[in-house]
Amino acid sequence: MATMKILSMAMLAAMSSTGYAYALETVGDPAQASWTINSPTFNFMLGQQPKPGVDDSVPNPIIAKPGDTVTITGRNLKLVKKIFIGKKEIKDFKATDTEIKFTVPDLPLGKYPLDIEDENAVYKGQKIEIVAGTPKPAPDPSVPPATPKPAPDPTVPPATPKPVQGE
């Protein structure tokens, strides 16, 4: 776990009344540190767990259709316990520290919130747009494709009906 130290007490005291950021240095792995500072009372919260986050480079909304594999990049994603598209939970997903992969389930067309959840909170903000409904099954290769009727030859005049005798 990382710790932090105050670089300058004089600077800290001078800045506390101005509302500026405080001079802090992270010692250790910054990905493992988390803190908040409530100015000017100096309430510090240290040692909180890192939170999952999605990279800004991930399109928002993500455009996909049912059956597509979606990859989301970010940080601390191995902490994700659940993923929801709207109210539909995605139970089968793979997560590493930097990416999550899952298959888009069968959902109607539309935009949905894409929420990720760790053991402490639900993180919202990402969206996914389903651009096609239920995918069509692949054609059966043992069945030949239907042969379309040929178009009529424009050089041949259409048949003229002959009158029936006795009319």
Could you characterize what this model shows?
The protein is built from one helix and 13 strands, in the order E-H-E-E-E-E-E-E-E-E-E-E-E-E. The protein is rod-shaped, with a radius of gyration of 31 Å. It starts with a strand and ends in a 37-residue tail after the last strand. The N terminus is likely disordered. It has 167 residues and is mostly beta strands.
List the helices and strands and how they pair.
Layout: E1 3-6, H1 9-16, E2 24-27, E3 37-38, E4 43-44, E5 53-54, E6 62-64, E7 69-75, E8 82-85, E9 88-90, E10 93-95, E11 99-103, E12 110-117, E13 122-130
Parallel strand pairs: 6-13
Antiparallel strand pairs: 1-2, 3-4, 5-7, 7-11, 8-9, 8-12, 10-11, 12-13
Structural key phrases:
single chain; rod-shaped; 167 residues; 1 helix; mainly beta
Taken in chain order, the helices and strands follow as EHEEEEEEEEEEEE
* Total number of helices: 1
Number of strands: 13
- What kind of sheet is the major sheet? 5 strands, mixed
Overall helicity: under 10%
**Rg for CA atoms:** 31 Å
Please give the alpha-carbon distance between the first and last residues. 104 Å
- Which sequence of strands runs across the widest sheet? 6-13-12-8-9
Q: Which structural category fits the helices and strands?
A: mainly beta
Beta fraction? 25-35%
The low-confidence runs, each spanning 5 or more residues with pLDDT under 50, are 1-23, 34-45
Average pLDDT, all residues: 74
State the shape: rod-shaped
